Every structure is written in C-alpha cells, then in structure tokens.
TrEMBL record:
InterPro entries per record: ACT-like_dom_sf, ACT_dom, Chor_mutase/pphenate_deHydtase, Chorismate_II_sf, CM_dom_sf, CM_II_prokaryot, Preph_deHydtase, Preph_deHydtase_CS
Domain ACT stretches: 286-363
UniProt superkingdom: Bacteria
Site (Essential for prephenate dehydratase activity): 267
Transmembrane spans: none
Protein name: Bifunctional chorismate mutase/prephenate dehydratase
One GO term of the biological process aspect: L-phenylalanine biosynthetic process
Pathway the protein contributes to: Metabolic intermediate biosynthesis; prephenate biosynthesis; prephenate from chorismate: step 1/1; Amino-acid biosynthesis; L-phenylalanine biosynthesis; phenylpyruvate from prephenate: step 1/1
Domain Chorismate mutase: 9-99
Coiled-coil spans in chain: 15-42
Function: Catalyzes the Claisen rearrangement of chorismate to prephenate and the decarboxylation/dehydration of prephenate to phenylpyruvate.
Length: 371
C-alpha cells in the first residue's frame, strides 16, 4: 500500500519543522562561537603583552574535562571532545600563528597524533627525522614538536630518547594513538595486489595477515607509511600498509581494515616545547638520571618513589655515550613537580644519582576508549 499525497505532505512538513529547529540552533552556535573568538583574540593580546605562550596544555585539559562533565545528554562524548578540540585549535590560531613540527611525511601516524594534539587550525609542518623536529623547535622555527616515544609492541623509539637526553626542550604533552593498520590500494581487490610496501615496523605488525592473505605478494620497505600510500596511489599492482588518513588523502581504497597482528597495538607520542605544562591534578613527570656504580644503587634510587607512594609508569635504560658500559635511565611517574611529595622524591633520588634532570611534566593522556 502506497502513502497518499496527504500523508506524504504531513510527513514532509514534520521533518521540515525538525530541520528548522536544527537551523535555529546552528545559527545560535555560530553566534556563540563568534563571541568565543572575540574573547580568544583578547586573551591572545594579553598573552603577547605578558610573554605567555598560546598553547597551554593544563588549560586545554581543564576545558575538555569541564565540557565532558557537562556532556551528559544525547550528544556522544567522543564527538563532544572532537568538536571542542577543534574549537580550541581555532582559538589558538586566533591568539598566535602557531607552527608545529612533526615526524613526517603527511598522513603518517605521527601526523594523526599531531592533529589530535593541536587540531587542524594550526600549521602542521612535516620533518624528515626526529632530530629535525627537535632542531626546528630549538631554533624557534616552530613553537612545538610531535614525535613518537614508544610503541606497545615494539618498545621505545631510541632516536627520541637520545634527543631528549641532549636537548633543552621539555615534554609538555602526550598522545596515545591506537594503531590500526589497513591495506590500501587503487586496485579493486586483493587479486590485483602484487607488491605491498610500508615502513618496516608497519610491515612487521601486519606480517601474519599478509602471509595468510597475500602469500605471493612481494614486500617492499620504504621510509614511512605516508610514502607507501603515495606509491600505492601512483603504481598499478601496489598496495600500502597504513592509516585511514592516508587512504583519504591519496584517494585509495581500503581493501582490508585492522590487519595488524595485535588489537592492543598503540603508540605513545609526546609534544615538545620550551617549558613543561602546569599542574592539572592528573599529571605525569618524566625524568632522566644516572646512578653511582655500587651494588643495589638502582633499587635504592627507585625506592625514593615508593616511599612517597608515587607510581612509576615506565623506566627505560640507554647507553650514556660518555663512557663504555655506563647507562642513563628514563622514568615516567604520576605526579607533578609542584607537588610536595614529588619534590621530596626527587630530592631523595639526587642522593643516589650524580645526574638528575626533569625532561617534562604534562597532563596524563586520557584513554580514548574510556570516552
């Protein structure tokens, strides 16, 4: 039975009334965003006149936390955070022309992490190496940098640790990015894929899936997942292992999603700046230290944190590069240097260590799965 013209007209009228309500709300949202932008410009003028930075991670965390507490209605919390992250990004761009260097090229996972940290309204500038990112920020050519620090499956990014040990820059933020590897190609099906290219780490993460589903394909290592996507877009028979962002940017088809070996695969990225972030109440601090050469000294050094009830979340050793078989340790712990218990722990650490340097304090990243 088909609807009558009268019933169809009533239905159309009903949906148009709902759409009119949405249009009215959209107009009010735009008016409010304009008001917010005017306030952001005034804040930018105040910051410039007082030598303050435009990007303040502790303030951003406070804004997002407050918004999520308010968001107990029908609008999804994950969407609410995404909307306000872009609002914050646009506001920062009104306060200052901000450049952020990141380990490129475009469409890599580091690019995606930079977008999550700063939004799309700041100037994101890719660099070829981790060292190049540090150098751009150190020279003042970019206000901040984004580099990978560790992967849940592959461990630490040693180039980043080595740069942190020798750079005056501080960690002022962190981003955890779940890594979903996808098979991207201009081909219509797996049957047309003869070569699969990507960064060695991405190929290793997808190796079991590739062996099962493309056993005859040749694997080719390239410098990045972004370069792999570029090659797949320009060469018939090629596929890339990479991100959905790369597929969108290069107009590739996603032939298979989530082909990485582990669903728990995630990478931690850090935001670099000239000073660490202010205290939020849910923070991490990163420190690098060396220990004296005597039995039990590392145990004694770490007991400084246990005695103050401070949770160590990570510890990593690296050769000191000053004398053979000597090491420095990188540690992250929950807390902020402005806390009295953290001050006491660091003072106790210095009793056992000839070298102690704080390399960052920053808001602890929110678990995206918890939203």
């Amino acid at each position: 039975m088909y609807p009558t013209d009268q019933s169809a007209g009533a239905r159309d009228k009903g949906i148009e009334e709902l759409r009119a309500g949405i249009d009215e709300i959209d107009a009010e949202i735009v008016r409010l965003l304009d008001r917010r932008a005017r306030l952001a410009r005034k804040i930018g003028e105040f910051k410039r006149s007082n030598g303050l930075e435009a990007y303040v991670p502790s303030r951003e965390r406070a804004v997002l936390d407050r918004v999520l507490r308010l968001g107990e209605g029908d609008f999804p919390r994950r969407g609410l955070e995404a909307v306000f992250r872009e609002i914050i990004s646009s506001s920062i761009s009104l306060e200052e022309r901000m450049r952020v260097a990141y380990l490129g090229p475009e469409t890599t996972f580091t690019h995606e992490a930079a977008l999550r940290a700063f939004g799309a309204s700041v100037e994101l500038e890719p660099e070829a190496t981790v060292s190049d990112v540090f150098a751009r920020v150190e020279r003042g050519e970019a206000q901040h940098g984004v580099v990978p620090l560790e992967n849940s499956m592959e461990g630490a990014v040693t180039h980043t640790l080595d740069e942190l040990m020798n750079s005056p820059l501080k960690i002022c933020g962190e981003v955890y990015l779940p890594i979903m590897q996808n098979l991207l190609s201009r081909e219509d099906s797996l049957e047309g894929v003869r070569v699969v290219c990507s960064h060695p780490m991405a190929l290793a993460q997808a190796a079991p899936w590739l062996r099962r589903n493309l056993p005859a394909a040749r694997l080719q290592e390239v410098e990045s997942t972004g370069e792999a996507a570029r090659m797949a877009a320009s060469r018939p028979g090629f596929a890339a292992v990479g991100s959905a962002l790369a597929a969108e940017s290069y107009g590739l088809k996603v032939l298979a999603r989530g082909i990485q070996d582990s669903r728990a695969n995630a990478t931690r990225f850090i935001v670099l700046g000239r000073r660490w972030a202010g205290r939020t109440g849910r923070d991490k601090t990163s420190v690098v230290f060396s220990v004296k050469d005597r039995p039990g000294v590392l145990r004694d050094a770490l007991s400084a944190f246990a005695e103050e009830g401070i949770n160590l979340t990570r510890i990593e050793s690296r050769p000191s590069r000053k004398r053979a078989w000597t090491y420095v340790f990188f540690a992250d712990f929950q807390g902020h240097p402005e806390e009295e218990r953290v001050r006491r722990a660091l003072e106790a650490l210095e009793e056992h260590c000839p070298y102690v340097v704080l390399i960052g304090a920053y808001p602890e990243a929110r678990d995206p799965e918890a939203l």
